[in-house]
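Co-fold these.
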Amino acid sequence: MCQLLGMNCNTPTDILFSFEGFHRRGGLTDHHADGWGIAFFEGPGVRVFLDDKPSSESPVADLVRRYPIKSENVIAHIRKATQGEIRLENCHPFVREMWGRYWIFAHNGDLKSFAPPAGHFYRPVGGTDSERAFCHILETLRHKWGAMPETGALYAELDRLAREIRAFGVFNFMLSNGELLFAHCSTHLHFIVRQAPFNTAHLVDDDVSVDFATVTTPNDRVAVIATQPLTDNEAWTALAPGELVLFRDGTPLYRDA
Amino acid sequence: MCQLLGMNCNTPTDILFSFEGFHRRGGLTDHHADGWGIAFFEGPGVRVFLDDKPSSESPVADLVRRYPIKSENVIAHIRKATQGEIRLENCHPFVREMWGRYWIFAHNGDLKSFAPPAGHFYRPVGGTDSERAFCHILETLRHKWGAMPETGALYAELDRLAREIRAFGVFNFMLSNGELLFAHCSTHLHFIVRQAPFNTAHLVDDDVSVDFATVTTPNDRVAVIATQPLTDNEAWTALAPGELVLFRDGTPLYRDA
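Predicted complex below.
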């Protein structure tokens, strides 16, 4: 199974601690050795690092670990290939522009026989079910609205689309435009919101702890979303199967299962 | 002035030698300290590294220098801001998907009062004249063709578009989809094609030489395109103002001034 990791905050935050445990799942503590990727928004701009090497051996992962990029929205993915060869164009996250903003998408799961019609606005470059699903989502939204709609309406339409697509198989995904982060659970997805008073957290995958009180300010609020909980001494919330959560400024804004 | 660097080859080649001299122009041997970026195609997939730090101090540039990514098509850019703030979303190269392929674009110059109408297919995310020009080019091509046209027809239309846009100011650019690389000269652009028999080249910006005979095979053909020649002991060809060159497999296929 692929692994997803997301972060949505009210202030630019580095993801080093979470990434430390997460990237080890790419070939060391778990079997996800078919490439990986991570996208960091800075305002509307985005950096996407992709690698078709396992994340535990990747020089690009090394860079990310040593270079504390501060971001309000991050999506990372470690791939276990189900559909599509192990090639760069099949690595998540995928990026497209819609309504004058970049949108980033990563998927964990397997959609059987999902073949939406060729898009007018968006077409896949690689051969994955995931990129087809991403293009289909954007295509549908872009046909419905010519510019960014009101947030509640966007949430409702994505909820409807997630329901439509998960009929084809496992469809855990994250989607962000640098302000909003949508997380959809089809089988496994967990989140935690860290805010004052901050405590010490200890990684599941590595004997590493961090005392967030020493690296945050009292107003910081950080939501971390992951396939499986990354720490073993905090209370993570499991999303229900079929649940879509919208995060903004580190807060779950809408939840609906 | 910004600096452009491009490479188009018939076999995946690393750009370390050219990048070694080029990246020093970002803050050390020249004044281009407003960010930089580089895009590497691997087949239809692409990696884009962007940084709003000067390239001579950037940890991302450090990674690129130490990690020999082999690519058939590369476009790199060092930015001297003329329009648009120094922000990540204003760093070149820009990327969009068209006809199921990624297209990469970088621009050196300054387009005064260039304000094409809002696009149906493509909209800028940042505030540069360069991204507006890129979106306008793709928008025009996408309206004209629903799928990749014949290469000669595409060249002719890009030649027409380049002429239209350079009426607004300096418009040196490079554009690639991972197979074709278009280079347009409005003021300064030079290229060299390296092929057997290979010789030793010596960088202008640094006391570094490489004997290409030791790192190539007899069938390799590599075109390098740069704002100014990168080596001082090879014969670079200057493009004429108004000239558009299309490279494929390391060969200038069409040239027209």
